[in-house]
Amino acid sequence: MKIERFEENPLITPTDVMPLHEGYEVIGAFNGGVAEYNDEVILLLRVAERPISEDPSIIKAPVYNTLTKTMDIISFDINDHAYDFEDPRMIRKKDKLDSFVYLTSLSYIRIARSKDGHHFTIDDEAFLYPFNNYQTYGIEDARCTKIEDNYYINFSSVSPVGVCDSLVMTKDFKTYEDLGNIFAPENKDVLIFPEKINGNYYALHRPSLKSIGNYDIWIASSPDLQSWGNHQHLLGIREQSWENGRIGGGLVPIKTAQGWLVIYHGATPEHRYCMGAALLDLADPTIVLKRSKKPIMEPDALYEKNGFFGDVVFGCGGIVEGDKLTMYYGVADTSMAGCTLSIKEILRQLDEE
Amino acid sequence: MKIERFEENPLITPTDVMPLHEGYEVIGAFNGGVAEYNDEVILLLRVAERPISEDPSIIKAPVYNTLTKTMDIISFDINDHAYDFEDPRMIRKKDKLDSFVYLTSLSYIRIARSKDGHHFTIDDEAFLYPFNNYQTYGIEDARCTKIEDNYYINFSSVSPVGVCDSLVMTKDFKTYEDLGNIFAPENKDVLIFPEKINGNYYALHRPSLKSIGNYDIWIASSPDLQSWGNHQHLLGIREQSWENGRIGGGLVPIKTAQGWLVIYHGATPEHRYCMGAALLDLADPTIVLKRSKKPIMEPDALYEKNGFFGDVVFGCGGIVEGDKLTMYYGVADTSMAGCTLSIKEILRQLDEE
Hints:
2 copies of one chain form a homodimer.
Chain A: E1 4-5, E2 24-37, E3 40-51, E4 58-65, E5 70-77, E6 83-84, E7 90-93, E8 102-103, E9 106-114, E10 121-122, E11 138-147, E12 150-159, E13 162-170, E14 177-183, E15 187-192, E16 201-207, E17 217-222, E18 229-235, E19 246-249, E20 254-255, E21 260-267, E22 273-280, E23 288-291, H1 302-305, E24 313-321, E25 324-331, E26 335-342, H2 343-352
Antiparallel strand pairs in A: 1-26, 2-3, 3-9, 4-5, 6-7, 7-8, 9-10, 11-12, 12-13, 13-14, 15-16, 16-17, 17-18, 19-21, 20-21, 21-22, 22-23, 24-25, 25-26
């Protein structure tokens, strides 16, 4: 697979973003969903801000307080044996390492704009900032689907009651309409298809399961984009592969003559994130026609391998012009990068296997 | 709380039910949803059948094969150190005790009928038997909501890809229409309200969360009963109480002049299951008006305390006649029992706290 990474990569790094909160530092500007609006490319950046700790033995956790509309900070002593601080993203109880109790940063969505798709300026204000109790730990990983003149933006809402997927609609990237939590917790990586298929909307989603099951991709349908049903298992993780830990939707599915092209992420249990591809039936996207055995993209550049959480390429959106797919992707849970791929070449790789 | 347990309790026990499968024994006839149909009380019994093991050192796990339409049996040596067999309901990996890999029995739904509500005869055939790949480990814990002339029955579909909640509709308790998986995994204890409220259907549901959050009750709305959205957190577990482990909807919500009466189950981490009550706003059931601090019912009778999985009362349906609520409930994951309660008294208990 020939991937042309942008020469300007990384396009946006945390140092390009001024923190919104006094006493905080921006540690991530990444995983941005993509929209074309007027003559601009818009990235719905996930900006992660962390309270600055002067004392390396103190770990701080920010929590948005919906009553005071300010941030509370919970402090932990790194020597507190009840907690585990090994994963820099979260604070976990030592006896429950597969779950977290706090995050070490709070994410929200901020817009970066570009005329040429390579050079971005970043808005001074947040676009999506925690606005209800489901978001007290933040808003993460926005994806954007344009349907007619409406831009539907879905994202993870994180709070102590769970990780939901929520939806807003905007026409101008200034104001938005809240359409509620569209997938119950625990769910992430929701990707809404860009048009109705046989009278229904469709979306990929990735539930996180407790009692039984893997981190697999499911598909659901909806009459109205707010209510979802007909949940079906679509793509599973694959043992002994680059995607044996978890998979999840990446880009909004791309309509091609051969089918819906799904570009998704796959990771190992050690959290090395690559991008893969699959093809779904045009008339019935619950049918998987093809799936790549090899990843179409792996972390390779230094900015993909090193960072807050290294060895991660995490595509959240793309722009299609003929055969050229420009993919914007988060790198190392830190920054944004861009690259171009040939859709024909991706389809050819699906054929070869 | 005055509870009149039926003199005939337990009403149905496993010995009353002939197994459908040769070489199997019925180990549970429990957790039956309830309907009134023509002049009969119908219990949608969860029947659990287990392959008979002649050798106590061999544990067997039944799996429905949707291709051959027969049961496969997986055998485990009780001395296999990779697995844990302590919970008689399931087989778990020793290093992942909060999840299971197989169940030791397969459940399906069979109808018990009664003219007087006390004496039941059990159909010879299954009513809901695994009919797709989401049910290869069985169908569990049906609940039934009558809306106009349609009986909507939802239940847990259990398979290696997860635990979904699925819906069928019947008009005659002989045939049914499959309405798909209405809640993505992992979700259980879905209770559909018996009428539209302000133009939408509502349902309680109980997601099981992995990364963060508890076993709490959520509420969702739907335009059509198949697609669900607007997910909101409704009732949480309560620390240091009879319901500090998990809670989940029990009976179809009961409309009273004061609000929607929700009778739900609550359990400790040690799996002692009681029944509790809460009251939701009539016009907006996402608003909790009251909630009982004490359970309204606790396991007390011998048949509630002893069985396949003891210390469990698990109400799945009721019949309301004026002030009298007849509740049918599973006991000890084994049998069915019945009791009557006064709705006024339940409401009074909510007022006292």
